[in-house]
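We read letters as residues; the integers encode the fold. Take this protein.
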Amino acid sequence: MVTPHTDPALVARARAQGLYCAVGCMTASEAFAALNAGADVLKIFPAAPLGPAYISALRSVLPRALSLFAVGGIRPDNLADYLRAGCAGAGLGGELYRPGQTPQQTREKANAFAAALQAIQA
């Protein structure tokens, strides 16, 4: 289950049904509420206005084994910054696809993200 927000009751119910939960949060309080409810991973949203320094600070108080994903405003040119700050990955939305764009535009954007990731891994 993927949520854009932290709703502990929803997370607890989903976990009771055996669902894997990727829970959206912004603050440390929301992050710990999501974890206490049983979240498997956290999606930090919106990541871009908060920036990699915020991710790094939040990462310092969260369990090491927990995977964080940056979502919201992640672009090929800032992906590496979020990974260095402690994110395991990123969620792509409007930076990958906008209503009305052509399949070719989507392909070009996807290729730019793939190239950015390959450069990081090299």
